[in-house]
Write a structure and sequence with these properties.
By secondary structure, the chain is of the alpha+beta class. It has helices at about 15-25, 45-60, 85-95, 165, 250-255, and strands at about 10-15, 40-45, 65-70, 80, 95-100, 100-110, 115-120, 120-125, 130-140, 140-150, 150-155, 180-185, 195-200, 205-210, 215-220, 220-225, 225-235, 240-245. The protein folds into two domains: about 5-100 and about 240-260, Probable inorganic polyphosphate/atp-NAD kinase, domain 1 (Rossmann fold, 3-Layer(aba) Sandwich), CATH 3.40.50.10330; about 100-235, Tumour Suppressor Smad4 (Sandwich). Strand 6 and strand 7 form a beta hairpin. The longest helix is centred in the N-terminal third of the chain and has 14 residues, at about 45-60. The relative contact order is 0.18.
Length: about 260
């Protein structure tokens, strides 16, 4: 018997039809436990569901390694689903990849303060037809006094191939210790294409003319309207571990995205 049969493993399944069907294939393969007791977790679903699971772990303060199997569309954070393969053999051979989320402190126009975590990116977006005007600050120094744009985002290496790439931002290899600072449809300064910063950087934004030009802050799947100021930096205390098949590593997938046409 595989020694992993005695390990405490949680099975988390997306509500989609495909994921629920796949769950029936492996439901009886193990005595699954609740996430609160588990040493590791298996996630069936897509990237969106995986992000939900990772955020739940961060919010509850209990982070364990996660092995995802793709029953969604892109499945960038997932392994390939194959109901015929030995699940526990895959877990034994899986390689860990650490992902460090962003810590985001947001202050609204009314003075409310909220703290969010973001695994992919933090973005600021205009709420209305009015162009957003943002002051861009890095390590306490104003780098751009007024960026007129549809928005701006800060992406981690794991998230650099998501919204950041769609906004023409750079792809960052895992382990690069970098963050992407990418404007979204910049109007002025028109030639500014963004920046690649060390992940030790503390990045800030101040909203100009916030009453007239309201701005929305989005940290992965959480959002807050009417933002006045925002601070972004990495949060090593919430380091996450994703498990990947040896032939399906996340760093290789990120690197290959640079050659897709």
């Amino acid at each position: 018997m595989n020694s992993m049969q005695d390990e405490k493993i949680a099975l988390l399944v997306s509500p989609t039809h495909r994921a629920q069907e796949a769950a029936q294939v492996i439901r009886n393969d193990h005595d699954w436990v609740d996430m609160a007791e588990a040493d590791r977790a298996i996630v069936l679903g897509g990237d969106g569901f995986m992000l939900q699971v990772l955020h739940q772990m961060i919010d509850k303060g209990r982070i364990i390694p996660v092995y995802g199997m793709n029953l969604g569309t892109v499945g960038f954070l997932m392994n390939l689903w194959d109901g015929s393969k030995n699940l526990f053999d895959c877990l034994n051979k899986a390689k860990p990849f650490d992902v460090v989320p962003l810590r985001t402190e947001v202050t609204t126009m009314s003075g409310e303060r909220r703290v969010f975590s973001a695994i992919n990116e933090v973005s600021l977006l205009r709420e209305t037809r009015q162009t957003a005007k943002l002051e861009v600050i890095v390590n306490g120094m104003t780098k751009i006094p007024e960026l007129a744009c549809d928005g701006v985002l800060v992406a981690t290496p794991a998230g650099s191939t998501a919204y950041n790439l769609s906004a023409n931002g750079p792809i960052l290899p895992l382990g690069s210790s970098m963050l992407a600072l990418t404007p979204i449809s910049p109007f002025r300064p028109r030639r500014w294409k963004g920046a690649i910063l060390a992940d030790t950087a503390k990045i800030g934004f101040r909203v100009r003319e916030g009453q007239k030009r309201p701005v929305l802050a989005v940290a992965d799947q959480k959002e807050l309207r009417d933002v006045s100021e925002i601070q972004v930096e990495i949060d090593p205390s919430k380091r996450l571990t994703l498990l990947f098949d040896p032939n399906h590593s996340l760093d290789e997938r990120i690197a290959m995205e640079q050659f897709l046409v």
